[in-house]
Structure formats: structure tokens, C-alpha cells
Amino acid sequence: MSQRRVGALRGLGLGAVLLGAALGTTACGDGEAVARGGALVDAAELPPSIGTVGDFALTERSGRPVTAADLAGRVWVVDFFFSTCTGPCPALSRNMLRLQDELAGTGVQLVSVTVDPRVDDPATLAAYADDLGADPDRWWFLTGDEEATYALIRERFYAAVERAPEAQALPGQQVTHATRFYVVDRDGAIRGYHDGRTEDGVAATAALARRLDARGRP
């Protein structure tokens, strides 16, 4: 993604991001700088940073506090979901499970952040993760303050998230959110994002995460 395009994305602001979500669209990028026609590009062409995650404070399903410091020096893949979702979340979680298998033997950490912390406390996330077969060491499930979580998603990942008004919220559809997998490098910089619902998105995510992980190894 060009620097001009990144600047344009930031300049559009949250309103445009949420409009895109309402229209069912996804942001630009989605792996074209990483995979072209199924073939990886040269390492020198790895995508530049499109932003830095910065610090945050959330709680893992185990009850352990997690901050950016816990992920420093590691490549990680993050998605946003909620446990009662009847929309895209089951597909996202299945595809994260595929990444758990495909990235076995690497140092890549998987991270799923709930967008419905009113329901998804650590115990609920633990049950959800156990049902999936998520490795507690390699795949973390995080919850926390809703306002702070939404700010993290919108301001650091430039992604959409919005809770429906109570009177309009249908069961399993109470939160609208981005459906991408974001790849973060060892310095906390977001290096790419891909559609977490598709075969191509999973493949591109795995390829980018694997290459970033390999670049930092001796």
C-alpha cells in the first residue's frame, strides 16, 4: 500500500470506515503486496507499516493481564469477534484454527479480541476457546473495557466496530465489526491485513506472518 493511500485512509476518519462497514465493504490492501496470483513477491517488497498498535491493556481467558509488552519481539495475527455471533465470526474462528495448524513450528502468536466484552468475560472465552481446540499458549483470547477496546480497533487498526442500539439489536448480531486478519510485526507495526473469511485471505495471512517471523530469526 502506498504512503499516499495510507494517508488518505487516515484522513477519511472513522465516519468513512463505518460507512464502509455498513455497505459490507473491506478496506484496501488485502494482501496484494504479499501475494500475486498465488505467488509470493520478493522479500524486499514486503509491505510497509500501515500503523503502529501501541500499548493496550486487556485480559486473557486465563485471567492474566496482557499488554503490548507481552507481544513485543513477536509476530502476531489478530482478529475481532464475539462468542455469540451468528454472522461471520464462526468462519473467522475456524480460519484462525487453520492458522494455528499452518503456523505450527513458528513463533507467530494468534490473538482474538472480543468486541462484546459485556458477554465475553474470561470464563466465557475459555469455554469458547476450549470448544475450538485453541492452544492456550499459541492462541490468546482477550477481553476488556468496551470503550477502550473500540478505541483500539478504530484508532490503531483503522477498522470498523459498532454496537447496535439495544432496541435494534438482533441476537447474535449486536455488534458490527471488521472481518480481517491483521498481521503485526515484532515492532508492533501492522504490516498487512486480509479477508479472514476466504481461502485466499488465510493463505496470504499465513504467508506474510511466516515470512515476517523468519526474518527475525538468527
What's a quick, concise take on this entry?
The protein is α+β, with helices and mostly antiparallel strands.
Can you describe this structure?
It is a single chain. This protein has 218 residues and is an alpha+beta fold. The protein has a single domain, classed as Glutaredoxin. The chain is built from 5 helices and 11 strands; from the N terminus they run αβββββαβαβαββββα. The protein has helices at 3-22, 89-102, 122-132, 146-156, 199-215, and strands at 35-36, 39-40, 57-60, 65-67, 76-81, 109-114, 139-143, 161-163, 175-177, 180-184, 190-195. The strands form 3 sheets. It has a 7-stranded mixed beta sheet with strand order 4-3-7-6-5-10-11, with helices on one face. Strand 3 and strand 4 form a beta hairpin. Helix 2 (89-102) crosses helix 5 (199-215). The longest helix has 20 residues, at 3-22. It is globular, with a radius of gyration of 16 Å. It starts with a helix and ends with a helix.
Layout of SSEs?
Blueprint: H1 3-22, E1 35-36, E2 39-40, E3 57-60, E4 65-67, E5 76-81, H2 89-102, E6 109-114, H3 122-132, E7 139-143, H4 146-156, E8 161-163, E9 175-177, E10 180-184, E11 190-195, H5 199-215
